[in-house]
Amino acid sequence: MESTIESLNAAYQDFISAATTVLELRHSSGGEDTPATATALEVFKQRWELFRVACDQAEELVESVRQRIGSECLVDEATGASAGGASGPGSQGIPPISAVRLEQMSKAVRWLVIELQHGSGGAAGGVAGGGVGHGGGAHQHGPGPTGFDARFTEDGAQ
Known about the structure:
Radius of gyration: 26 Å
Mean pLDDT: 74
Shape: elongated
Low-confidence stretches: 85-90, 122-146, 148-158
Largest sheet: none
Structural class: mainly alpha
Order of helices and strands: HHHH
Strand content: under 5%
Number of helices: 4
Number of strands: 0
């Protein structure tokens, strides 16, 4: 994470330096296009692209961390392992589920999302037609890659 931040900072500093160079050369040439300003402008464009790449990498890192934290919180809540101590099998109105079962459900949901993003007809038709809410969806063409039935039947293996 530290290296991503340092990389982003370095790319930003290079970008600002290139922008400053372009502005200074434009000013010193009286706004005329010169070979020096053209070269500086080309360097500026390259630094801009490198800065955008660094921003994209930082955004991917932040998204990855956000998803990991969200998953950990979800597992803690679902299994009753949250640090508050007040969450137990009866304190929230719903009993906790096993972490294995939660992971199966999470994989099934991810599997459906991937199918929908790739335009797969099977799951997309089931979801678009209200299939998931009516016991269809992923179950129309068998269990997902984990052997999990996406209808989320009661977890008996607690």
